[in-house]
Amino acid sequence: MAHEPTISSNSAFGPTRWTLVVRSQGNTPEARAALSELCEAYYQPVFAFLRREGRDEEAARELAHDFFAYLLERGTVGNADPLRGRFRSYLLGALKHYLADRREREGRLKRGGGLIIESLDAPLEGKDAQIERDVASAADTVPDTWFDRQWALTVMARALSSLEAQFAGEERSEQYTVLKPWLAGDASALNPTAAAERLGLSESAFKVAVHRLRKRFRETVQREVAQTMPEGADLHEELRYLVEVLASAPR
Q1: Facing residues of 9 across strands?
Q2: Quick count: other Cβ atoms within 10 Å of Cβ 40?
Q3: What is the domain count for the chain?
Q4: Of 29, 177, 234, 236, which is least surrounded by CB within 10 A?
Q5: How far apart (Å, rounded) are the C-alpha atoms in residues 3 and 65?
Q6: First to last CA, the chain
Q7: The pTM is what?
């Protein structure tokens, strides 16, 4: 029986969005458009990271918006390494740098910073003081793997959305709806006979349909991940890592 081909490098997908960005350091219209698409696609891990730091939803959304605006307005990706850098790593590093710089600026303002402040020595009291201490130190307590897990969840969600759109374009939305539980659910708890009857398939044909759906899903995930990596990078290693962080218990 022939084995299904595996993809160990994203070269098969041609120039990826992240490759377009790092090749020109973000200094062409094409690269800026690619970076904008990546930022829009991976807003959720940044928002979740900011929420994890202790901010409420409104504050986290506002700060995420400010961060991405800053990233896109710079018009450059700085010293991103086109040979090794993943967009995932770049984005987390840029976020940490942005938050550290923001805390430093806010600290200068609290110490005076050329502004007239009623009292520099008035202590914060009660919950306000505790919240400030928690948020100030949060960047040191939220593990990188937690961000990576949110990233992996976003990859899966985007792949599922893309797959659903593919089936809709083929006018097979009902088939996708019936088959989808076999992608992530416990197969032993599902009823293939009832599902096959609903689709008008024999049980053997249904098994083939599930197999093909899983194959398409893997390929869709590979394409999604490839867009966040430089051309020629080890796609298999990145996929292995994302599966690993998904399997780990969130902290």
Answers
A1: 234
A2: 10
A3: 2
A4: 29
A5: 45
A6: 42
A7: 0.77
Tokens of 140: 């040191």
- Residue 48 C-beta-side C-alpha neighbours within 13 Å: 18
User: What pLDDT is recorded for position 37?
Assistant: 87
Note whether 138 and 93 are same-domain residues: yes
Alpha-carbon 100 to chain mean position: 21
CA distances from 184 to 52, 160, 180, 181, 250 (A): 26, 11, 8, 6, 18
- Position 126: which residue type? G
Q: Does residue 106 share a domain with residue 20?
A: yes
| Per-residue pLDDT at 56 | 95
How is residue 191 written in tokens? 């009823």
- The answer to whether position 1 is within a domain reads no
What DSSP assignment string belongs to 125-144?
A: -HHHHHHHHHHHHHHHHS-H
Low-confidence ranges of the chain (pLDDT < 50): 1-7, 12-13, 114-139
